[in-house]
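Write out this protein's structure.
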Amino acid sequence: MPTHTCYVELFSGAAWVLFGKPRFQTSISDGGHGNRLIGALETLKERIAPVHNRLKTVIIENLDWRACLDRYDRPNTVMYIDPPYPDNGANYFHNMRDWKEHRELAERLRKTECKWILSSYDIPEMRELYP
C-alpha cells in the first residue's frame, strides 16, 4: 500500500484492511450504508444480551500456554487448542512462532490428564507431532 496519512474505506465490509493497518493520523470509514448504524444501535441491547449472559461464567486470563496447561490440566477439562499455524507467514507477537514450540506443545499434551482438541494444518509434520 502506498505511503499515506489518511485512509478511507467507503464500504467497510468486515474492515479487515482497516483493522490490519497500523495506527496513523486519520482513518475514515462510513460503515457502508447510511442508516445501518442507527438500526444496529436500536437493536444492540437485544443482540448483546445473549453474549453478556454467556460471558457471566467465563474467566478470561492472559497466560502463556504452558501456565494455562499447568493450571487447568485436569481429567474433567476439555481444551480446544488453536495454536498459530507454522510457516504461514504471519507475524505473531506472542508464543508458538516456530516448530520448536510446536514440538514442546506436542510433548506436553502427551502428558496431560485433560482431553484436548487441536486445530492446525493437515500436513505430515503436524500429523507426526500430534498423532
